[in-house]
Design a protein that fits this description.
Length: 318
């Protein structure tokens, strides 16, 4: 899997070990993400489907985009659309997306880069493959995560951040058979480049066959592991988990996961997205592209969008 890789993980710093008094988190649930379509029809897996909102908080939605191998002319994106009340994080593992928005943000997201968009009070944006990739087809694999904003920040000014693949913090485990890419927040004493209104940690872990990993985790954060590819286990009790499944880990100071000794032909390692954050614990009224606290605020968001108050498509739009 492209993302960011290293020839010799043993050269990386090892993630800090839990203290003797720390407790492992327990696996509360394993769910399987159903398949669906997004935007103009690109295939996704709805990672959070079937999970209680309280276990997801501060996250509200996550799609695994692909992995799909497009033929010529097949790659798809989204039309221009609005958002309000949360932040979107787009992590491209393989393939390329172009982004443009109504506040002048824009750029190319590819090969391990992340784009962070704070919709806040309102933004319009478009995400689509570049023309050359539409013509040629090719592999496409990424993740889009929605991070909620607390009521006091829902109407904050929109903001756009490009996080280059080279700026993520890289760690390994004790045996050097893991690559841990810290995209946002902190893991032990390592920090990632993403700047978030809501405190979170987001990391992409590659664990070689037979590898075991213990990750320190903020006891106040929720904890989710979503398998992007491969087969393995989660928790000290070694509950099986595989591609397209998500585990909720509760109560404790560290997470445990393992990669099966043999992986299928499509992946050489277990690939896991690990994420968690500080729960917001407020009521959620969400519909389509808006995530608010009340139905009245949702109605206001639709009214504001219809009236053009969430932004305008720029004249030089892609
Ligand atoms: Mn969007």
């Amino acid at each position: 899997m492209p993302a960011v890789n290293v020839e010799n993980p043993l050269e990386l710093p090892a993630v800090v070990k839990p203290a003797a008094s720390d407790r492992p988190r327990r696996v509360k649930s394993i769910t399987t993400a159903p398949r669906g379509f997004e935007g103009e029809g690109f295939p996704v897996r709805r990672a959070f489907s079937g999970v209680e909102l309280a276990d997801l908080d501060p996250f509200v939605h996550m799609d695994q985009m692909g992995e799909v191998d497009y033929g010529p002319g097949e790659p798809k994106g989204t039309p221009w659309h609005p958002h309000r009340g949360f932040e979107t994080v787009t992590y491209m593992i393989e393939g390329t997306f172009l982004h443009q928005d109504s506040i002048g943000g824009g750029g190319t997201i590819q090969n391990g880069a992340t784009q962070w968009m704070t919709a806040g009070a309102g933004i319009l944006h478009i995400e689509r493959p570049p023309d050359a990739l539409i013509d040629s087809g090719g592999l496409f694999h990424g993740v889009q995560l929605w991070v909620n904003l607390p009521s006091k920040l829902k109407m904050v000014s929109p903001r756009y951040q490009d996080i280059e693949a080279s700026s993520v913090s890289l760690l390994t485990n004790e045996n050097g058979d893991a690559v841990i890419r810290v995209i946002a927040g902190s893991l032990g004493d390592a920090g990632g480049p993403g700047v978030t209104h809501t405190p979170i940690t987001l990391a992409h872990v590659t664990l070689m066959p037979g590898g075991q990993l213990v990750l320190p985790w903020n006891a106040h954060y929720n904890a989710l592991t979503y398998v992007l590819a491969g087969q393995g286990t989660v928790g000290l009790e070694r509950t099986p988990i595989e591609e397209g499944q998500m585990a909720v880990h509760v109560d404790g100071d560290f997470l445990v996961m393992g990669a099966n000794d043999t992986q299928d032909s499509r992946t050489r390692a277990l690939e896991v997205l690990v994420l968690g954050g500080e729960p917001i614990r407020e009521s959620i009224a969400a519909y389509g592209p808006f995530v608010m606290n009340t139905k009245a605020e949702l109605q206001q968001a639709f009214d504001d969008y219809q009236a053009g108050r969430l932004g305008q498509i720029p004249a030089d739009h892609i």
